[in-house]
Amino acid sequence: MALFPLLALLAHGGDAAVSVYTPRGPTGLRAAQECADLGSWLAYLGAGACADLGVDEAICADLAKPDRANARCVEAHGPAVSKALADAKHRHEKELWKGTAAFTISAFNNWGVVRPFLTSLLDHNEHLPGLTWFLADSPHDGDAVVDDIRADFEALRARYPATDLRLESLDDVTAAMAYDARELAFRYDLKCFNTAVKPHVFRMLFDRGYRSVLYFDPDIHFYADFDEVALLLRKRTFVLTPHETRESPDDGEWQTDLQIMRAGVYNYGFLGLSNAYPDVLDHYLAWWADTLRYQGGVDLEAGLHFDQNWAVFVPSFYPEKTYKVLVDPRYNAAYWNLHYRGAEIAYNSDSDVTYGGAPLVFFHFSGVSTDVINFDAISPHQTRYSLGDLPNLRPLLASYAAAVADSAYYREHS
Q1: Residue 212: φ, ψ to 5°
Q2: What is the pTM of this model?
């Protein structure tokens, strides 16, 4: 198949491309992805960027098309395209990331998972201005293990001085709320509280002047930069990812499409928001927060699953120009989409993890048990695959297991 249809489909969503072109070998999806990424940078940088970065005029003309379906770029892919993309990142990344914050939510006892999340995010996104760990917990004053966690956190602040790395408390977020956050803590269990408070933490960070705010579950691990999402949020208020973009096999195993639909079409383990459309942002955060005040629990028969199933209204509540459903398969790979993404992931080292030859951005290790050595089941939330079926994932999970090796200790002692 010619690469022109591949790139045309990639522009509308990476998984659609992979459905007709299964990437193999060292280049695979990389050429199409680098061309698409370069197109995003050129659109952001505006007039003169092509000449400034030394990009061929014919390629620039194709990249400027709305769908960025540029066969010329892919066919001509080589050192020149890679260099132009690297130059754009090197010269303009810091400016792109200005006004952006990220956060995660957990209790102290999840520090063994939170720490590798923080380091992987910052190792690949060095220009991120703000990063918050919101503590869904009491202060635990005088607790020796918690004191050690606080000391470890301070060491991370010293390791990443360019980022405003903060611990935030219930008192901090209550200041951005119309009521005390402890109301949610009394109403819900810890997991539901963590998600019900999420819109309020977004609001708190936007009120501090950030232009874009990213949320991530702490069981996410990064292997590449997040520039594409930062670029998208310059012109959109929402960037969200669906659980799957290809139907699950009808084989009687978990997860099924029905289970996914009940849990939520979109996965809110990641959500990017910006004030590109301030009225839309304000409406969504107010509506989402009000909804989760009483309807943020888990009751699949009643249509409730934490905070994320409410995301289904984003495409119907708001104009299409305000949101991006990101279906690039390099984002939010997880147990729920292994049926078509799992075989395409290759782990060579923590600094070289790819999807079809292009850098994998992040893997969501949802449900991966950190209390046991045997990761053969991949996740307890699915029964379709074991590592025997997808042996290429074994080194990826082994690396993550090593990164979170002390998580059981913190869960037991804090």
Answers
A1: -130, 145
A2: 0.91
